[in-house]
Amino acid sequence: MLKLAQLLQDIDVKEIIGDTDRNIVSLESDSRKAEKDGMFVAVKGTTTDGHKYIPVVASNHVAAIVCEDIPSTLVKGITYICVENSAEALGRLASAWYGHPSSKLKLVGVTGTNGKTTTATLLYEMARMEGYKAGLLSTVCNYIEEKAIPTTHTTPDPLTLNSLLADMVDAGCDYVFMEVSSHAAEQRRIAGLNFAGGVFSNLTRDHLDYHHTVENYMNAKKKFFDMLPKGAFALVNADDKAGAYMVQNTKADVYRYSLRSDADFRGKILETHLDGTLMSLNGYELHVQFTGRFNAYNLTAVYGASILTGFNPEEVLVNMSRLVPVSGRFQTIAVPNGATAIIDYAHTPDALVNVLDTIREIVGINGEIITVVGAGGNRDTGKRPMMAQEAGCRSDRLILTSDNPRFEKPEEIIEQMKVGLSAPELKRTICITDRREAIRTAIQMSKPGTVILIAGKGHETYQEIEGVRHHFDDREVVREAFSEL
Q1: Helix, strand and coil in the chain, % to nearest 5
Q2: Which of 28, 141, 473, 481, CA to CA, is 20 to 30 A from 98?
Q3: Measured on CA atoms in the order 135, 138, 142, 146, is the torsion positive or negative?
Q4: Cα separation of 190 and 185, whole Å?
Q5: What sign does the dihedral 306-311-312-317 (CA atoms) show?
Q6: For 351-407, how does the pLDDT look when each residue is reduced to its tens digit (9 = 90+)?
Q7: Count helices and strands in the chain by DSSP H and E runs
Q8: Which helix (H) or strand (E) segment is 23 a member of?
Q9: Model-level pTM greater than 0.85?
Q10: How far apart are CA 272 and CA 293, in angstroms?
Q11: Could you give phi then psi for residue 14, rounded to 5 degrees?
């Protein structure tokens, strides 16, 4: 329970109608959960506007309503608070409600199109190797020290987010590493958080179903760096043209990492194999258990962010060799016939390019690559032919299949992907809607030395069809198929 006046100290208020000297028993943005003597924040979302439900929550005798538009009919006994942006206000209110947990932690955010999960997770692992208690907020799973907490969004809503951060404070965590999605930045889910640093990986086409243009998508990412405070660090990929743009207006101290040129943190690939890479970091040579140029970028970012976060540089170098790949990210599985299956979350054209170019570099021009890939339903349709095009020109055989069709017909998604293929590529392509059958077919087609890339779902353990999640794990399906060889 908190005083309303105390909660309002952190938000910009345009107008208040009613008494602020009163107790608030709960904070909600979901009208179905709003309760007597609580506060309801009416947020204008992408699918619904919380202002529509103000009459409903008013009838539940809430104590206060935060909104962008004061309703024409006011209910006696309710305090109305008008703000410029209620989503921004919700983030700040949530932080205040949970006692500003981010100010009691060293919180580092990671944003970009690809590499967020790997970078954030490895930083979390690094902190624990360094002997610190740490938390992780990621696409795959949230962690409070060793305690796993299932996740539904890359970045949770403000109330869930601050609740998790408060639990991390209570657990004695020193550091927290979190993925910051473009949706979260645009929707102000991170408003009110106190970041010690931010990392930018790269920017390629993604989420245009929501942002509509690449420029909007890029600006959403930039908002995260705009909000970083003085004294924080901003570590950006100098080899990505969006890197310089991200930090144009930041108050944070800017640092850069690169594989191509001089930078504060310089990585270099010396040798590449399916089971690891020999690379150097700022001139120090080491072997890491990761493969591919994209992972070399991730590791260079981890190295730089670890040092900027305050970890011992010598211990960081030693621990870099101990880090292991994140589940579903270039995860290799040996096939009994001598082939290799690689499970990867690659679900954008650029991510497919990164993974397939890495595989080709290892197997050589005469090696065989079979790619199994689909595209998610009810998402950016423009990237579907682009994904097929990139996979088709880099694979010896291509199998187009279902991903998470959601509320679309998988056959129609596959047809949209086929548009990106040339006539010769189409001759090397087969379409199998059933993803299980597609994976089994790829394995049956393989021979010793073949690399089978199964892309798109990575760590996911479900397939979403018509709004229902069915258990489905690419890794399990691969191993099941072994018995048929």
Answers
A1: 35, 25, 40
A2: 141
A3: negative
A4: 6
A5: negative
A6: 899 899 999 989 999 999 999 999 999 988 999 999 999 999 999 999 999 999 999
A7: 17, 26
A8: strand 23-24
A9: no
A10: 9
A11: -90, -40
